[in-house]
Amino acid sequence: MAKFGRKIGMAGTATLALALTGCMGGGEIPSASTPITTTEAQQGAEYHPQLLNQFGGAMTGSQAQYVESVGKNIAVQSGLGNARESFTVSLLNSPVNNAFAVPGGYIYTTRQLVTLMNNEAELAAVMGHEVGHVAARHSQRRQQRAQRNQIGGVLGAVLSGVLLGDSSIGNTVSRGFLQGSQLLTLSFSRSQETQADDLGIQYLTNAGYDPRAMGTVLASLAAQNSLDARLQGRNASVPEWASTHPEPASRVQRALTASQGLPGTVTNRDTFLSRIDGLIYGDDPAQGVIEGSQFIHPELRLSFTAPQGFYMVNSTRAVSINGQGGQGQLTLASYSGDLASYVRQQFTALGGENNALAPQTLERTTVNGLPAVYGQARVNNGNSQVDVTVFAYEFARDRAYHFATITPAGSANPFASMFQSMRRITASEAGQVVPRRLDVVTVQRGDTISGLARRMAYESGQEERFRVLNGLGQRDVLQAGQKVKLVVRAR
């Protein structure tokens, strides 16, 4: 959760959601010589700063320059007029495995997805997939279809289902949970994703890369999603909260089959690994970090503990807390010094423009020395009801944070312990929070997977994490001289 940031309203969010190409997660393809139009360029220029703001900002330096170079080189293969000059490629400071594009030649990948890759061909594959969406004008087709079907009102419900993971939660409240999240995208149709995969494979082949890279990077993404689910104690079939990569496992074999017999052998594995060495992995302390069941933000000087059996996902705007007994998030809003008014305003925001929502009662308390106010509202949802709770804390006269949670009506609130765990942290605690980074090492004679995995900066799942990070199956062994990735604490 970043320190502060301008929020995108629901109307702007809906528009951006329709334009944003969420993937890695048909229609007729325009002529290869069709350039990016002025209208498309203007659209992309409008969305671009919003996306940078929403996904942690664009990274700079040699690693970002390398990603940009590979992205623009693969964009040239699309045949779009002035592709190298027309495309903008951004490496985003986000801990979510994600890649997407918007009209006008703007393509993005998160640093977390890059850390999952194992060679330059895989980076080119992801970039090629996104370029394929741009070349096929998939975003524009989706916008046109949405306008024809008038699905603007449906959009919030679709996105809410992704965030809340339970259709029994009322849309009235769930729309508000979207604000401040990274859930700005709808997945494309299966045919559009397949078409983008095929175009990406074509671009890989034209550039001389190994076309199998499309299948291998999708396989790594599927393995990572499955591992994350197991480590967090959730169903592996449930999509990652902030991911817009629908069912990568179902596309792996098709991509590998489509690449069979095609020319191209270049992977540039060692070059790629040397260029991403040192890249930050997981949460950036500037956005707060998740350590087991604890969230700690060294700059905001706050910490809380999620309930047992719940898992958290951090974004630049909010921290999501998810479990079978309810859903919630921690975020902030503008604060004028009146905590009771602040809580009422959050209920109003959760209800939306057309649904009045207010707490039945407001209670004042103190939590670990912090002034706090909380309220609850019971909301009808068809034949059932849900309880909405807002629990806010004052950290300064001009700064407050709040939890917003949804739970089944009348049940014991599983978030009670979390509400009471919010606290300030000391300067000493803040100073102990350091990021994890990639450390590319060369395998020495006698090194084993289990031995190297013990150097991973995690208390659990070390070998599983090491295998997925390096694309290693259960039967794979290491060879002396081979380069592999570790995740270590930054020194």
Verbal overview:
The structure is a single chain. With 491 residues, this protein is α+β, with helices and mostly antiparallel strands. It folds into 3 domains: 10-281, no CATH class; 288-431, Mog1/PsbP, alpha/beta/alpha sandwich (Protein Transport Mog1p, Chain A, 3-Layer(aba) Sandwich); 436-489, Membrane-bound Lytic Murein Transglycosylase D, Chain A (Roll), CATH 3.10.350. Helix content is 40%, strand content 21%. It contains 18 helices and 18 strands. The protein has helices at residues 10-19, 38-54, 62-76, 83-86, 111-116, 120-135, 138-149, 152-164, 171-178, 190-207, 213-232, 249-259, 269-276, 339-351, 416-421, 427-431, 449-453, 462-469, and strands at residues 21-22, 88-92, 99-102, 106-110, 280-281, 289-291, 294-297, 302-305, 311-314, 319-323, 326-332, 361-367, 370-381, 384-396, 399-408, 423-424, 436-442, 483-489. The protein has a 7-stranded antiparallel β-sheet with strand order 9-10-11-15-14-13-12. It has a 4-stranded mixed β-sheet with strand order 1-3-4-2, sandwiched between helices. A 4-stranded antiparallel β-sheet has the order 6-7-8-16. The protein is globular and about 70 Å long. The model is unreliable at 4-21, 25-31, 144-186 and 236-246 (pLDDT under 50).
